[in-house]
Amino acid sequence: MTGEPVLVFDGDCGFCTTSVGLAERLVGIRARVVPWQRADLPALGVTRERAEYELLWVEDGRVRGGAQAVAGLLIAAGLPWSPLGFLLRLPPVRWVAHGLYRLVAANRHRLPGGTPACALPPRDSSPGPSAPSPGAGPAENR
Prior knowledge:
By secondary structure, this protein is α+β, with helices and mostly antiparallel strands. Helix content is 39%, strand content 11%.
């Protein structure tokens, strides 16, 4: 997929919706912003399980999730935000950002604006290709 980047978030989560709105006002998101519930996920190359699990940045056919989605958003925003986005892609900052993102995502229902609907779906205990486990994310997140 080429063209305008797409930011995919959880539209049922008050914390996520508030966070995206804040980013739109402060950073100026240069992408199409769409809740996963209204997105054509297959066309974006995204599964529902992944969209439920983390914020996604889809650009030029590549899907970045979690903290790396935030990095993509910041880079696309240009100055003064892009240096921070590039920093978020470098180890060890990347690793710390991933851990912080997972901590926030796992507790978003407890944060301001969060509701019980914001809680991440329970993990399937059986191994399989569904969503990544909380300790491991897609390769773009490591």
